[in-house]
UniProtKB/TrEMBL annotation:
Record SUPFAM superfamilies: Glyoxalase/Bleomycin resistance protein/Dihydroxybiphenyl dioxygenase (SSF54593)
Listed Gene3D superfamilies: 2,3-Dihydroxybiphenyl 1,2-Dioxygenase, domain 1
CDD domains: VOC
Residues forming coiled coils: none
Source organism (scientific name): Lujinxingia vulgaris
Pfam families from the UniProt entry: Glyoxalase_6
Domain VOC: 6-121
The name this protein goes by in its record: VOC family protein
InterPro entries given in the database record: Anthracycline_SecMetBiosynth, Glyas_Bleomycin-R_OHBP_Dase, Glyoxalase_6, VOC_core
């Protein structure tokens, strides 16, 4: 039987896609490839990297604004430094962070009001195969 092997892409609406793409490139350091971001599936620095697909309850408060129907989670190498960089740039950053066996988490909001999550994986990687 054929099966899904990972996330192929994340697509969402934006009022000004080019400006929002440039914002993500500037503030999160995402690689820009002709208006798109492309991540390699396996990175030398994080060979155990993985992606998660997880539906949430319709009434979840995890995404922030109840009108937001999705939230993107970005894997980062230094959560504290990333959050400080965003604060320094005047970006709206949630004061709360979480630290658990799954890693460290923080949240911020892009210029169009989309709340996104930043995730620093734990030093001892979680293995979905375990």
């Amino acid at each position: 039987m054929a099966r899904v092997t990972g996330i192929g892409g994340i697509f969402f609406r934006a009022t000004d896609p080019k400006a929002l793409q440039a914002w993500y490139v500037e503030h999160l350091g995402l690689p820009d490839f002709d208006g798109y971001v492309i991540f390699k599936n396996k990175e030398e620095t994080q060979p155990e990297a993985y992606s998660i697909f997880a539906p949430f309850k319709k009434d979840t408060e995890y995404f922030g604004d109840e009108r937001q129907s999705f939230m993107i989670n970005f894997r980062v190498d230094d959560l504290d430094a990333m959050l400080q960089s965003l604060r320094d740039a005047g970006v709206e950053v949630d004061a709360k962070t979480e630290d658990s066996e799954f890693g460290k988490f923080g949240w911020a909001v892009d210029p169009e009001g989309n709340r996104f999550e930043l995730w620093e994986p734990p030093t001892i990687p979680f293995s979905p195969d375990a």
